[in-house]
Amino acid sequence: MENIGAFLGFWERGAQKRSNFEETASRSVKRWASTTVFLSFFIILFIGSFLYWVNVSVFPGSLLREEIFASKSSEESLGECPEYFRWIHKDLEPWKHTGISREMLERAKAHAQFRLVIINGDAYVEKYKNAYQTRDVFTVWGILQLLRLYPGKVPDLELMFSCGDRPVVKKRDYEGANSTSPPPVFHYCGDQESLDIVFPDWSFWGWAETNIRPWNSILEDIKEGNKRTKWINRAPYAYWKGNPYVSIAREDLMKCNVTDKYQWKTRLYVQDWHKEKKQGFKKSKLADQCTHRYKIYVEGQAWSARAIGRAGSRYMQEKLKMKYVYDYMFHLLIEYAKLLKFEPRIPNEGKKVCAQKLASSQNGLGKRFMVESMVNSSSETLPCTMPPPFEPLSLKAFFENNEMIKRQVEMWEKDSWESLKFG
Ligand SMILES: *[C@@H]1O[C@H](CO)[C@@H](O)[C@H](O)[C@H]1NC(C)=O
Ligand SMILES: *[C@@H]1O[C@H](CO)[C@@H](O)[C@H](O)[C@H]1NC(C)=O
Ligand SMILES: *[C@@H]1O[C@H](CO)[C@@H](O)[C@H](O)[C@H]1NC(C)=O
Question: Which residue intervals define the domain Glycosyl transferase CAP10 in the entry (predicted)?
């Protein structure tokens, strides 16, 4: 827990701000309390690990710790999936009683960049719109690797995938007595106000445009980077580097940089991707960012939740290893396919995709990352075992607890401003 105890993060499910954070860091960074973020895949992971910690340190005695995020060190040896897999049930809940009809699926098309069909272990893609950069290509790549890892185990299915930055299926549009059922849309992000089905983002297999390598390789780099400087020898500041112009929360954060007047104990840096690209990304290596004791997490648009995974604690490395990323996809697709009330079929404009062909269609970093993240042999172990859905009461307690944490942070924020004014 060394590093996790030195990491600060905030998250939100929807319009109601909910944040959770790490106490050690909080003393020096109270002012970021109003930061808001969306929920995305990493945040789910984040909840699992951080709430556990926060509960222990900030709100001792809370029921939550035992009920939802019990730290199961024996989890892995028992073959159980991490607790965050429970969100799979939650994400699919809207179709639990109705199932998913072809009509519902076709309605999802309006939101989708592509349709993915799996039949007899083969994948077909029908493309509708361009995605930003190569998100769609790397997402399909990830699915192809899943098929290689668990050959013959992924069921036949048809799904619609959205590659945007913000959730697209608004809950409020599907409420009320006569409302239609929501269209099932797979996406990298979701929040409390939306019904998108959360799926791991493309960057797990590499993000060529920003020179971010596949997650497997990054985990190794981070382990090395962590070893280079002991925590106690790191600069006692909270560090953030990124593009501040993609969200209000980030622009807000920029006001908190160290100045002659205020010693916020922060070190905030603007990442200029264009400049970095010209210089070969030498200054943006994540593993080289292990030089400060604390790291700030602030949401940009939903996708940037990925940064959380880069915090570099051993705990996160365990729960977030590629095996679990694939297992999460696997269980999500299994549970989703169970709901389909129609026979999947190859779409008219659908093209069969396979790993070798896709990799050879890429060049430069894109190709290199695909080779690097290629699954070379099928898994020798079974997928982990799915945990049951959240108990409604635990989930309620979980959201309430987050509210409480948020209010606590807001109080610290207020105190801090007052002590600046009067002290
Ligand atoms: C739902 O439809 C029924 C029958 O058409 C109608 O009587 C009722 O007022 C509608 N309810 C709402 C909330 O629109
Ligand atoms: C924040 O302060 C540091 C130290 O003075 C400086 O190097 C950095 O450029 C500043 N960041 C921003 C975003 O102004
Ligand atoms: C699969 O093999 C390639 C080539 O030897 C290697 O670069 C890649 O990292 C391997 N994949 C994994 C997931 O280890």
Answer: 153-343
- The residues that bridge with 15 in the sheet, in sequence order, are none
**Listed residue (230, 229, 213) closest to 221, CA to CA:** 213
Identify the residue whose C-alpha is closest to ligand 3 atom 6: 372
Name, of 18-22, 327-331, 346-350, 398-402, the range with top average pLDDT: 327-331
Q: Which amino acid is at 196?
A: D
Q: CB-based burial of residue 253 (10 Å sphere; 0-12 exposed, 13-18 middle, 19+ buried)?
A: buried
Distance 248 CA to ligand 3 centre (A): 40
DSSP for 331-366, please give it: HHHHHHHHHB-S-----TT-EEE-HHHHHHH--HHH
Structure tokens at 252: 């807000």
- HEC letters along 157-203: EEEEECCCCCCCCEHHHHCCCCCCCCCCCEECEECCCECCEECCCHH
Residue found under tokens 């089905």 = 197
What angle do the packed helices 215-228 and 364-373 form, to 10 degrees? 90
**416-417-418-421 Cα dihedral, nearest 10 degrees:** 130
Q: Are 355 and 148 in contact (CB under 8 A)?
A: yes
Q: What is the mean pLDDT of the chain?
A: 74
- The neighbour count for residue 288, using CB atoms within 10 Å, is 12
Nearest to 182 by CA among 249, 120, 260, 101: 101
From 259, 265, 268, mutation site for ligand 2 pocket: most ligand atoms within 8 A of C-beta:
268
Q: Is the dihedral of CA 234, 235, 240, 241 positive or negative?
A: negative
Enter the pTM of the model. 0.70
- 339: which 2 tokens? 């709901």
Instruction: Give the pLDDT band (50/70/90) at residue 399.
Output: confident
CB 76 within 8 A of CB 319: no
pLDDT of residue 88: 95
What's the rounded Cα separation, in Å, for the pair 37 and 10? 7
Asked whether the beta carbons of 45 and 266 are under 8 A apart, the reply is: no
Cβ of 257 closer than 6 Å to ligand 2, yes or no, is yes
Q: Which residues line ligand 3 (CB under 6 A)?
A: 216, 371-376
Q: What angle do CA 143, 322, 52 make, to 5 degrees?
A: 120
Q: Are 139 and 124 in contact (CB under 8 A)?
A: no
